[in-house]
Known about the structure:
This protein is an alpha/beta fold.
Amino acid sequence: MNKHENLKKLLNSPEFAQDIVINRLLPAQDGIYAKFPEDLDPRIVKVLQKRGINEIYIHQAEVWNLAKSGRNTVVVTPTASGKTLCYNLPCLQALLNDEKARCLYLFPTKALSQDQQSELNEISGEGLNIKIATYDGDTPESLRVSARDTGRIIISNPDMLHSGILPNHPKWIKFFSNLKFIVIDEAHAYRGVMGSHVANVIRRLRRIALFYGANPQFILCSATIANPLQLAESLIGQEVSLADKNGAPRGEKRIILYNPPLVDAVQGIRRSVVTESRRWMLALLKAGIKTILFAHSRIRVEVAASYVNEDLKNIYTDNSRIRVESYRGGFLPNERREIEKGLREGDIQGVVSTNALELGIDIGGLDASVVAGFPGSFNSFWQQSGRAGRRGGTSVSVFIASVSPLDQFIMNDPEWFFRKSAEEAHVDPDNPYILTDHVKCACFELPFTDEEIKDGIFTENVLPVLEYLEEEGVIRHTSAKWHWADRSYPAEGVSLRTGGADNIVIIDITQGRNNVIGEMDRPSAKEMIFEKAVYIHRGRQYIVEKLDVENRKCHVSEADVNYFTDGLVKTDIKVLTEDEVISVDGFGSEEAFSAVIGDVLVRSQVTKFKKLKFRTHENIGFGDVMLPEEEIQTRAIVFQFSPESQTGKVLAKMDEQQIGEALCGLGTLIKNIAPVFLLCDTRDLGIAERVKDPHFSVPSLFVYDKYPGGTGLVESLAQKIKPLFGYIREALEKCPCKNGCPSCVGPAGNKKATFAMLLS
């Protein structure tokens, strides 16, 4: 049987069919084409024709026309729709027209950079003779000088631009003074914290280019989001034109929504999403269907990959000649490239990944994607779904629901899943914490002038930041200029992706090896690789011997245990300011409840960990963790249920335990459903319930941004309270459980009490 017949047989098998909620075929779509532009350099046309391209898609032609007219452009089309050619055509044309011209390509990951260099090298090697160089953290020192001096297209990422290129701009004079185009690929990835950082890095980049007499054009590429134009303009701080008419063809795709079977109908407990995703991946691989499984944490990725490889284990058939690898952040560069190459060349038939492979890396002809639990946004789901079927033909994407309220809401109303429009992506470059970091970096690179502050690339918010930094003694104002006056190198202390730049290096010391096997950011390390924790790396198990936070090292030794570990975090929260009060209307003239937006101090600490047995995930023991607490000042919205409000009157009829359970249930629902409205991950929001808060003296529920200073998530949530609570009520109504379950109010919530509270 061929793959198509194998898939049909699999979907009709009793093993899966009875729990498939919906099986929908998205039909194939023909392409809409345009002729090559008349003024396109014949050398480029010749190279494209050699590669079998005799015409271009209409969105590629539209970007060409916009770029030719000198406008910044953002192109928004689905996965695998030829966005690369959208920017390659105008960039290659500019480089061929002017031998001094330079272009900068920015990708969110090193893997994408390597992928794009391979493709560009093939094009250049067919007669264009344009030097392409990758300049990132993996580029050897011996190649960096050559890249700077002779590279016509520099491929990099925002992290290297921030910490390696911009602070050393005098070495890049030739490049910056001739910079014609800046390409920002996968622009939708730059949202929230990272997007706010990247917007400031782009401000610094434009400032330095202007200093050397260049005014480059921007071409941005994005997957489908609700506000691509707004996001693009926020990122680059300039006007942008939109190209969103997709002309690319699409193969047919089958979307499967699958709800794991109930194992305890009374408590609403379903079979584990890890177990079910493993079953699906195994069945697909054994049917000859190359598969990628997306799990949403590092632990889940390693555990799921271990399960699949264990199930395939057979020394007589060499595991049925099926090779499965894990892929996640923290891998060493050579490991990432080995896996990517294996997927492209067909040596690896399956991969279990975090969202690290969500973006457009060419990983070959995968036929199926399995998404284990909702990935936090519909944009992410369609990106992950699009990783299969990139080379045409029929593909399948299986969404396996977890027990979270949002996943079960989707399973109860699957049509909503297909009706739901793409979410918006937001950045806040003027976040005071983020802006202060980048003003330091910008001032180190070039002094700010008083004239520039009034009408420059940075907004007027830069002046109070400079004045504050002058008081701190790191900036000096003299002769109408603001100079960097400190010995430090500020970019070193600023990470674009986490709250701090200090990653922990993980070292294998088994039998005196002393080999670096990975890395992890400090906050995650405190929660995952504390002493006696189990660290899993590409299927191998290690026990953490020592976590040295101060020296950024973690020593691990190989072990063979039948469990993995999970840290238990204790959180304390203190109100610092009350900036805004919002009244949420109830029935009639009464308010349902009020909400306060302000600054809070959050202290978190891992105090214990639990051991979870492989396969069954049963708790087989606890251990103590002795680590210093993490402390951040951030933004929060506090839902207050005073005795005078409608909701407060409902809570007044409950005892303290019921109030606690109602608040816990509401907190669980908000944490799981709010990310759909905010385009963030559930891990970006913190929840704290207080039966009687010491500051407000009434039952309160804190929802806070888990990044220092906040990133605008709280303010965005404040604008969406009514629709959010509407979805929450609907999720509770549709949940089939009687008293509450993991699919609605969570294990500690009370469905009846939460529902009574929401009905007000």
